[in-house]
């Protein structure tokens, strides 16, 4: 088994908190490597999310389906990002979201009960996972504010500025549902941006 995904995980942790080699080894030992095929789901509504997932390679998305059958993307995750149904995982209650691979992907998973044991075993591990939770909460707050106060075009521009390399990897339907618009409207925004750029360059 290649160590590269685990090296990537180690680097993700050490960006947040200085760890000794022994502490890094203890953390890494609790994660299991899993390969996913494109469109393979790892979480489905009605089943408890048992894992927190680190993306070592590939791309995933979390989404819900409303009563009209329309899907709404809640989160994306590419390399070096984390994903799960957090309400289900934290509270150990049935999930409301799907989490599936957008590409063939490699993830590292930690089991909920193993994470709890880690946090009880060492205050440093408790601090690390708390920092991760705080960052995720801050991101979700920014996203809610953006969805409430920005126009559709502004939301697209913000996403493009923050994640220019990610945009090219996402299916248009998934990006549109994340931004709260139809695929047709997203296509229109993109076409208008191309036209404006051509005019500016001419």
From TrEMBL:
It comes from the Bacteria. Keywords: Kinase, Transferase. One of its GO terms (molecular function) is kinase activity. SUPFAM superfamilies: cAMP-binding domain-like. This is cAMP-binding domain of CRP or a regulatory subunit of cAMP-dependent protein kinases. It comes from Chryseolinea serpens. InterPro entries: cNMP-bd_dom_sf, RmlC-like_jellyroll.
């Amino acid at each position: 088994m290649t160590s590269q995904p685990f090296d990537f995980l180690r680097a993700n942790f050490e960006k947040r908190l200085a760890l000794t080699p022994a502490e890094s080894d203890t953390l890494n030992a609790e994660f299991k490597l899993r390969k996913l095929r494109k469109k393979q789901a790892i979480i489905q509504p009605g089943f408890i999310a048992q894992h927190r997932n680190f993306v070592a390679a590939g791309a995933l998305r979390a989404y819900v389906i409303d009563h009209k059958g329309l899907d709404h993307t809640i989160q994306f995750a590419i390399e070096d990002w984390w994903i799960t149904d957090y309400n289900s995982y934290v509270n150990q209650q049935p999930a409301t979201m799907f989490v599936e691979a957008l590409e063939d992907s490699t993830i590292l998973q930690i089991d909920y009960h193993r994470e709890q044991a880690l946090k009880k075993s060492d205050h440093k591990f408790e601090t690390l996972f708390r920092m991760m939770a705080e960052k995720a909460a801050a991101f979700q707050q920014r996203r809610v504010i953006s969805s409430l106060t920005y126009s559709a075009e502004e939301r697209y521009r913000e996403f493009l500025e923050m994640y220019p390399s990610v945009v090219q990897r996402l299916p248009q339907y998934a990006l549109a549902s994340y931004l709260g618009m139809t695929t047709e409207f997203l296509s229109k925004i993109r076409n208008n941006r191309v036209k404006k750029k051509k005019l500016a360059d001419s």
